[in-house]
Design goal:
368 residues; alpha+beta; 6-stranded mixed beta sheet; 6-stranded antiparallel beta sheet
């Protein structure tokens, strides 16, 4: 059988650049070399694209989450839409890198997970793994996510939105509406970057100012006290959900599941996989995960994050449309405990991408 050529797309211009590189390395290690030829395409923090033919040798300090970076010496490339030899070429545009059968984007955050990269790949006519343009954009914007979930009858936390230029929000109004402490978050960012838990006016104003450094829109959300549960979803038209897992953050070190606890501090949190909950709760979580996935028009993959409250309510917090694939990431771990090992999971995501591409190519694009 002829091998498929897979381009693993990683890095990017976001605060989650380093996390993306860690995820990409794990995906590359999981790809079956008997079935796939691998090209790594790394995007640096200035937005330049580099190709690495040696998939095992594209990183500096791969074992250090603080120092990990793209290696110098990659071939800088350009993009040429409509090129039959393939849209990825050297910087001059004269030499093609050859046909790419499918792209596996593992770009976390803005310019990768927000629909922009998905739109570019569609323009380039390259099949890609994961959620499409609409679902990516909706899943990235926490405000839009919550409104779509709310309209679908899916339980969410109470929230308010502040847009740049709309004037200040009075902390007393926030406190009366959402309670205190509350969370302040950039609307379009992931991995808990820019998020603060605040309980007084001074901290609130500082948190809003910091959040506006990352985004044009800020989400203010009530604090929910409960267990943090995550569930993985896989599929296109008929998605399935994994067993849920639980994030247990060290309360003596962190007040919430921060970036530091997720990716830097190896003792910041523990993962309970699967979560110790009743079968009835498992089924409710799985059902809500699939409903949330469909409400946001997702395809391929997503991780759905929940709060399980003491009174038994299950609240959807957010969806992650390009979940982490690092060594400690929940998305692949939950599928492994649910019966789909890492390598098979990557195979399935590639097949789902190719199936969607075939389906979309059957659509008419011109009259007559």
């Amino acid at each position: 059988m002829e091998k498929l050529r897979v381009a693993v797309l990683c890095g990017g211009q976001s605060a989650e650049h380093e996390v993306s590189l860690q995820s990409a390395l794990n995906i590359i290690n999981a790809l079956d070399r008997d079935r796939y030829d691998i090209l790594v395409i790394g995007i640096d923090k200035e937005g330049r694209w580099f190709a690495y033919e040696q998939a095992e040798d594209f990183l500096e300090h791969p074992e250090d989450p603080k120092l990990i970076s793209l290696k110098e010496g990659g071939q800088q490339i350009s993009l040429v839409p409509g090129d039959r030899e393939g849209p990825f070429r050297d910087l001059s545009g004269d030499v093609s890198l050859g046909k790419i059968d499918v792209v596996f984007p593992v770009l976390h955050g803005p310019y990768g997970e927000d629909g922009t990269m998905q739109g570019l790949l569609k323009i380039l006519h390259v099949p890609f793994c994961g959620v499409g343009v609409l679902g990516s954009a909706a899943g990235m914007d926490k405000d839009v996510t919550k409104r779509l979930l709310r309209d679908a009858g899916i339980p969410i936390a109470k929230f308010m939105v502040l847009e740049r230029g709309a004037g200040e929000v009075d902390f007393e109004e926030v406190r009366k509406t959402l309670g205190s402490p509350c969370f302040v978050k950039p609307a379009n960012l992931g991995s808990s970057v820019g998020i603060e838990r605040v309980g007084d006016e001074a901290a609130f104003k500082a948190a809003v100012e910091e959040a506006f450094r990352w985004d044009q829109k800020v989400l203010i959300e009530e604090t929910l006290t409960g267990r943090e549960i995550e569930c993985s979803v896989l599929g296109n038209e008929d998605p399935i959900a994994s067993l849920p897992g639980e994030i247990i953050t060290d309360p003596e070190r962190y007040t919430f599941y921060s970036y530091e606890a997720k990716y830097i501090d190896g003792k910041g949190a523990t993962l309970e996989i699967p979560a110790k909950v009743s079968e009835e709760v498992v089924q409710r979580i799985k059902d809500l995960a699939v409903r949330s996935f469909q409400a946001l028009c997702c395809e391929g993959m997503a991780r759905v994050d929940f709060f399980l409250l003491e009174d038994g309510r299950i609240i959807v917090n957010e969806l992650n449309t390009i979940p982490g694939f690092t060594k400690i990431s929940m998305y692949p771990k939950l599928w492994e405990i649910s019966g789909i090992p890492y390598g098979e999971l990557i195979d399935r995501l590639i097949r789902l991408a190719l199936e969607r591409d075939r389906r979309e190519k059957e659509l008419k694009t011109a009259l007559g």
